[in-house]
Amino acid sequence: MSAVAAPAFERSPGYWSTVLRRLLRDKVAVAAGIVVLLLVLMAIFGPYLTPADPYASSMLKRLQPIGAEGYPLGSDELGRDLLSRLILGARLSLFMGITPVLFAFVLGTALGVLAGYAGGAVNATIMRTIDVFYAFPSVLLAIALSGALGAGIGNALLSLTIVFIPPIARVAESVTAQVRGRDYVEAARASGAGAFTIVRVHVLGNVLGPVFVYATSLIAVSMILASGLSFLGLGVKPPEPEWGLMLNTLRTAIYTQPWIAALPGAMIFITSISFNMLADGLRSAMEVKQ
Amino acid sequence: MSALPADDVGGPAQPLLTVRGLLRHFPLKRNLPWQPRAVVRAVDGVDFVVRKGETLGVVGESGCGKSTTARLLMHLIAPDAGEIVFDGRVVGGNDLPLREFRRQVQMVFQDSYASLNPRLTVEDSIAFGPQVHGLAHRAAVERARDLLARVGLEPRRFAERYPHELSGGQRQRVNIARALAVQPRLLILDEAVSALDKSVEAQVLNLLLDLKEQFDLTYVFISHDLHVVRTLSDRVLVMYLGRVAELGATEALFTAPLHPYTGALLASMPTLDPDRRTTEAPLAGDPPNPIDPPPGCRFHTRCPLAEPVCAQRVPAIDLAAPHAVACLMHEPGSRHSRAGTSSEKRTEE
Questions:
Q1: A243-275 pLDDT per residue, tens
Q2: Chain A partners of B138 at a C-beta cutoff of 8 Å?
Q3: pLDDT-derived band at A52, boundaries 50, 70, 90
Q4: B152 & B281 share domain
Q5: Residue A158 is part of a domain; what is its CATH number?
Q6: CA A79 to CA A129: how far, in whole Å?
Q7: Is residue A2 part of a domain?
Q8: Is residue B331 part of a domain?
């Protein structure tokens, strides 16, 4: 064996550091990333940021306008401070947006990679089953599942996870099928490696990236669906602050205090569009010409 | 690294690789379920022998089954029929499991970029094979660096690079190192230098010659470049439409081809000699469709010397002969008008 001495090997920036550098050059993606970061911080430190008790109601101070004394963003239909509720609402809303996508990412990728790598009858069984779920519009499927399972956060999460597994599995399957046909996978098979090793070393590294980007773009959809479920009374239950639920309860005030009624919707909008733009930026940053 | 694989079983006289009746048909999709399924006869009964230490060139037009044969040899595609014997042991049998066979036989592909994982550094790509066969990570990386040096890439500069940072020639050197990392005895080079620039191609060919010497390798060299095959090979196998047309020692085959197809192939070689300039294409048209190959000798539709008998009778090939050919002209008693004279010529050899 030739001695490999201490002098440093010329290292080149890895794939992910190249992606990060490209992402940081994309102003829109950076702005969206900052908003997402702020929202996450808001969710984590919510209880320390609220200026007033988000649960304390007051019948006399109902539907205060924006800028009213003691109510910087007005108050809701029960006289609770809207700013505090919006801040604390980030917790449940983000949780309901991210968690199902995360679960679906794990399960959907596993299914998709299995189907894409195994091919044949396994692929047909998995993908045709998934196509059944595809036949329903996602909103309808989420409502139907939640309705059948019963109201509550846990069931809402479960139904959203089921809704997101098919699209993620489909993306994972198609990327895996592409990667599987590459010569380096053939070469790995030719060196005697088993399917599990090949998937771990050669397939996952090339599949996870695109699937992850796709999953990020689903977070916005998930938030909107979760808000929709809460709006219909199938998700979060009052008095917990959650943007979708707040939108629901404030809708009666749309004629008297339209700005207040619109605020939770604005939060949902800002959050989902930020996640979408971040995913978009990530996608283009990952299209590194190699 | 100095230790050469000491897996030799049968001694130098025993062929390293014996292929018998290798066959693979690819079924096509049916338009309607009750229609009969059409098949592409990609490799349709191929026999040959690779001797220890030789370079066997494999030539033929595009679509003649060269690459499919290579993939069948590696069992990357399962053969429909046929037997591969490696150094006296049947591949996939109890004596030689597929996994062990794949350590002893490796392959270099044409597309140098597609055959390297873009997410792995060069050394990780090379170290993958040995780790599959039980070498510890550290030792595998050491071996990878050593091999990089042997294929002419300074480890310090290249070990931690990614494939996209290398040129085509450098990448193909990495692929060769990757193939050698499991210490194989047989290397299948499937158009391994065809995609490279001429100058780089020459360097890589020289490297292959050096490595063959150093590691005591045997090559199966698949190419459509007849000049390269002539320089590199000891023997040459000519394939036509999924079958062996001719197999013989390089010089004999290039100077006195027996099969009319080989003759036509050689006549199509570009030359710099102005007196020997080709004015007409020696072969007219495309090869017939392998979905529905012609009966009898597959070449009779394009053969200038074809006679009615060629469409009826499949020419046999005797691989024991030093210069084997599948042509009725060289088969005594085949009722081809030239059969008699040619068979005499064959006994002279």
A1: 888 888 888 888 887 888 888 888 888 988 898
A2: none
A3: confident
A4: no
A5: 1.10.3720.10
A6: 49
A7: no
A8: yes
Of the two residues B346 and A199, the one the predictor is more confident about is: A199
Q: What are the residues facing B238 on neighbouring strands? A: B59, B246
How do residues B292-315 score in pLDDT, each as one tens digit? 888 888 888 888 888 888 888 888
Interface with chain A: mutation pick from B103, B107, B132, B166, highest number of A CBs within 10 Å: B132
Q: What is the CATH number of the domain that holds B49?
A: 3.40.50.300
Nearest chain A Cα distance for residue B4, angstroms = 13
pLDDT higher for A241 or B205? B205
Among A244, A221, A218, which residue's Cα sits nearest to residue A233? A244
Chain A hits for B74, Cβ within 8 Å: 190
Q: Is B86 on the interface with A (CB under 8 A)?
A: no
Examine the predicted complex and report whether its ipTM is higher than 0.90. Answer: no
Alpha carbon distance B57, B48 (integer Å): 12
The C-alpha atoms of residue B181 and residue A189 are separated, in whole angstroms, by 14
Q: What is the mean pLDDT of chain B?
A: 85
User: Same domain for B231 and B277?
Assistant: no
Q: Yes or no: say if A245 and A236 are a contact pair by the CB < 8 Å rule.
A: yes
Quick check: B44 and B64 in contact, CB under 8 A? Answer: no
Sheet holding B218-222, edge to edge: B105-108, B186-190, B218-222, B55-59, B235-240, B243-249, B324-325
Going by pLDDT thresholds of 50, 70 and 90, the confidence category of residue B281 is low
Which residues sit opposite B324 in a β-bridge? B247
Q: Quick one: tokens of A252? A: 């009666």
- Domain assignment of residue A211, given as a range: 24-286
What residue type is assigned to position A216 of the chain? T
Instruction: Please give the structure tokens belonging to residue B154.
Output: 């300074």
Least confident of A70-74, A140-144, A233-237, B114-118: A70-74
Do residue B314 and residue B186 come from a single domain?
no
The answer to whether the beta carbons of residues B301 and B294 sit under 8 Å apart is: yes
**pLDDT greater at residue B224 or residue B349:** B224
B136 touches chain A (CB under 8 A): no
Which backbone phi and psi does B223 adopt, to 5 degrees? -160, 160
Q: Is A48 a member of any domain?
A: yes
Amino acid at B341: T
Taking an 8 Å cut-off on Cβ atoms, the answer to whether A186 and B115 are in contact is: yes
B177 with B68, same domain: the answer is: yes
The reply to whether A197 touches chain B by the CB within 8 Å rule is: yes
Q: Mind listing the pLDDT tens digit for each residue in A12-39?
A: 677 778 888 888 888 999 999 999 999 9
- Look at residue A15 in the predicted model and tell me its pLDDT: 74
What are the b/e assignments for A219-245, b being 16+ CB within 10 Å? bbbbbbbbbbbbbbebbbeeebbbbbb
Say how far residue B132 (Cα) sits from the centre of its chain: 26
φ and ψ of A73, to 5 deg? -115, 30
What pLDDT, on the 0 to 100 scale, is given for residue A5? 47
> B182 and B142, same structural domain?
yes
CB atoms within 10 A of CB B273: 6
CB B288 within 8 A of CB B299: no
Rounded distance between C-alpha atoms, residue B127 and residue B140, angstroms? 5
